[in-house]
What does this fold into?
Amino acid sequence: MNIDGKAWRTIGLDPGGRSVWVIDQTVLPHRFETRTLTSCEQAAEAIRTMVVRGAPLIGVTGAYGLMLALQEDPSDGVLAAAFEQLNATRPTAVNLRWALERVRDRVAPLPPDRRAEAARDEAGVIAEEDVAMCEAIGDHGLAIFQQLAAARPAERQGQPFHVLTHCNAGWLATVDWGTALAPIYKAHRSGMAIHVWVDETRPRNQGASLTAFELGKEGVPHTVIVDNAGGHLMQHGQVDSVIVGTDRTTRRGDVCNKIGTYLKALAAHDNGVPFYVALPASTIDWTIDDGVAEIPIEARSAAEVTAIQGRLLSGSGGGEIASVQLSPDGSEGFNPAFDVTPARLVTALITERGVAPATEAGLRGLYGGQAG
Ligand code: MRU
It folds into this structure.
């Protein structure tokens, strides 16, 4: 997608193909910087510290991390150790394990001297597939938005279509297009009048920083709101649809996404607002039934709750990115990074293969025999 008129992706190979560049998402929206990853350790660190984040992008970064490891040492031992190192960086998004398994299964049967090149190729294929899947999600989601907009009462036909989203499930969370934001970009580019309510998404504010950045650079009208405002807006008819991404979707259609998603689903259910979840196949965990009981929820540092990062407004340090403390010395914080929205609260799943009810039958109807 676009930044100041230039098309960008979130990740790519440097010339020569032996190192990887990524956009540093820890300093957006205040600074735009890229970083170079030259080792598996650096790839793991970039995922762990959220230089790169978002389920699909974590997966692609992990795939390239295996390539970086195999360039240094293509032995069986290093392949296994790098797999474990990368897989342990963030536990909730299943895309990471999915992408690592794809690369491992491709390279393991090969002689060691051909493994790094094969890993490079497979990571590239995964990245290209991700772009194609996200764009297809955009097309399917656009059709839903158009139907919902057309079904609005006559007095609301002239108004923009109001969408609420949580966290960042845009192009920064993937390689390009995004999942939940792809239909929004498609709608905007088609000329549909669309406006996005952007949940700030405490504690790390991926909405206020990353989603707002993306939408602004693409010229999509949007408004940042505090996480607690969504229910109020829905009660007052100011949300036509909610759309979010997911880090892991169970085979029965439960979705695990950024903490606070569940509360938006409850508010949407109570107010009759459609609640859609956008996902590529790489996010489905066919081994899991019950999301609440079985999905591992990442617990991040309490410091993300008791402090906050932003750009200083004024004063001697004006313009600098800084962290400030919110809570008193000694107060403890607790920081579960994801929650699970039960399938019964999901209006439908929007995938690259089309739209399905959030049920096992719905998912198997799309993925059939490929389902694990
Ligand atoms: O902790 P993050 O920023 O990696 O969380 C990202 C999300 O929760 C996204 O909604 C999810 O990965 C889906 S992204 C297309």
Q: What stands out?
A: DSSP finds twelve helices and 18 strands in the chain. The first helix runs from residue 40 to 48.
